[in-house]
Amino acid sequence: MVIHPGPAASGIPVRCTMVSVLALRGSGAGAQVLLLRRAGPYLQGAWSYVAGHVEDGETGAQAALRELGEETGLVPTAFYATSFCEQVYFTAAIEIVPAFVARIAAGAEPHLNPEHSAYQWLTVDAAANAVPFGSQRDLIAHVRREFIERTPAAVLRIDGA
Prior knowledge:
Elements: E1 2-3, E2 14-15, E3 18-25, E4 32-38, E5 47-48, E6 50-53, H1 60-72, E7 78-90, E8 93-104, E9 116-123, H2 124-130, H3 134-148
Parallel strand pairs: 2-8, 3-8
Antiparallel strand pairs: 1-2, 3-4, 3-6, 4-5, 4-9, 7-8
C-alpha cells in the first residue's frame, strides 16, 4: 500500500510495501538469529534477515511467511508480529516495514534461493554487529527484549504458522 499526500499537500510520501522477518532458533543466552548474505545487485554482500515485498492481496503476515519460505525454505514452529516497524527513507519515500519473528526448530537449516549466497546463525550481539543499518540493529534489540528476554505477549502470536 502506498499513501500519497493529497493534491494540496506537499511532503514526502509514506508507504508500506515491505516486511521483515527475524528467524530465531534456541532461547535465552543460546538464542540465535539467522542472517543471509545478499547475492543480487541490491545490497550485494550485505548480511540481513529475511525481507521482501508485499504482493497484491497479501497481508503483512502472509507476505512475511511467504518470504521466509521462498528465501529459506524454513517453516516456523511459532510466528509473531513484533509490534515494531522499521522506518527507512528510500528514493523519495519513507518506507514503513512491519517486522515479524519466526521461531525455528533446533537443528533446522535453511535452503537458500538465488537472492542469497550464504547464511549464518549468530548470537543476538553478533547479528546486531553484522547488519548494515541502524533500524536493523533497533529491530534486533527490540526482539531481544520482547522475544528472548521475556515471553512475548500472547496477542502477538499469529495462528496458522
